[in-house]
Amino acid sequence: MSKILETLRYSKEHEWVRIEGEKAYVGITDHAQAELGEIVYVELPPLGERYEQGDEIATVESVKAASAIINPIEGTVSLVNEELDGSPELINEDCYANHLYVLSPFAPEGVGGLLNASEYADFLATL
Q1: Which of 4, 29, 38, 78 has a CA that sits 20 to 30 A from residue 94's CA?
Q2: Residue 1's pLDDT is what?
């Protein structure tokens, strides 16, 4: 069973969002990293670019496949997790401690459209 944190919001594309003040941290869920397997490369979005909700924003590659990261809420990329450039396997070690990027500013109204932990668990049960 996938690890799901109560403090996060989730998309049906298996991204998580953690809001801290004016910043929205985005990463991939435990389910996503488990499905991908050993992650070998992460292509992060460019700083300063604004993305809409639903835009392809990054790519995560594993020994099994490449997967597009779908931006869960509208916002501007203000920070990327540069540690992933040399160590993409950090996502497999702890996907919730290793975000991909930060949106700031972001559209707070988009957060309400994401799933809470219980809703995400119910969604996973349908897969």
Answers
A1: 78
A2: 74
